[in-house]
């Protein structure tokens, strides 16, 4: 049973790691890999914060701003809990795996929030007003 679980964990890890593999392929030690994937997460997080602040400025009423903040806080709690669960096994790669998880989920959130930056005039499926030119 443990072998099956380990196999699934490593195959899942391989799929997740593919996105950042190009950037970190030259790392020569576990420490270097941890640092590289940690930096990849920091880059994703910086982009997320930039988009979030743009959406806060674009929000045209207090209720929308409140809902945006509430949504983001809830999402962060989910992201952290999900990555904690995915890396519960520990081991020498757990730090790297945690950073990969954070980076991947943050990149997904960035893509989701970017959609709000492209709202068209009268788009009833988008709570944010269209960008003014």
From TrEMBL:
<protein>
    <submittedName>
        <fullName>Urease-associated protein</fullName>
    </submittedName>
</protein>
<feature type="signal peptide">
    <location>
        <begin position="1"/>
        <end position="21"/>
    </location>
</feature>
<dbReference type="Pfam" id="PF07007">
    <property type="entry name" value="LprI"/>
</dbReference>
<feature type="domain" description="Lysozyme inhibitor LprI-like N-terminal">
    <location>
        <begin position="24"/>
        <end position="113"/>
    </location>
</feature>
<dbReference type="InterPro" id="IPR009739">
    <property type="entry name" value="LprI-like_N"/>
</dbReference>
<keyword id="KW-0732">Signal</keyword>
């Amino acid at each position: 049973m443990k072998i099956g679980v380990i196999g699934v964990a490593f195959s899942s890890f391989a799929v997740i790691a593919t996105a950042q593999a190009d950037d970190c392929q030259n790392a020569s030690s576990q420490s270097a890999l941890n640092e590289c994937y940690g930096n990849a997460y920091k880059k994703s997080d910086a982009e997320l914060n930039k988009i979030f602040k743009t959406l806060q400025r674009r929000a045209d009423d207090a209720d929308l701003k409140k809902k945006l903040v509430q949504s983001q806080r809830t999402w962060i709690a989910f992201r952290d809990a999900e990555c904690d669960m995915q890396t519960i096994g520990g081991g020498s790669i757990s730090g790297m795996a945690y950073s990969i998880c954070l980076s991947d989920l943050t990149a997904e959130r960035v893509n989701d929030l970017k959609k709000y930056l492209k709202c068209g005039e009268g788009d009833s499926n988008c709570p944010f007003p269209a960008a003014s030119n």
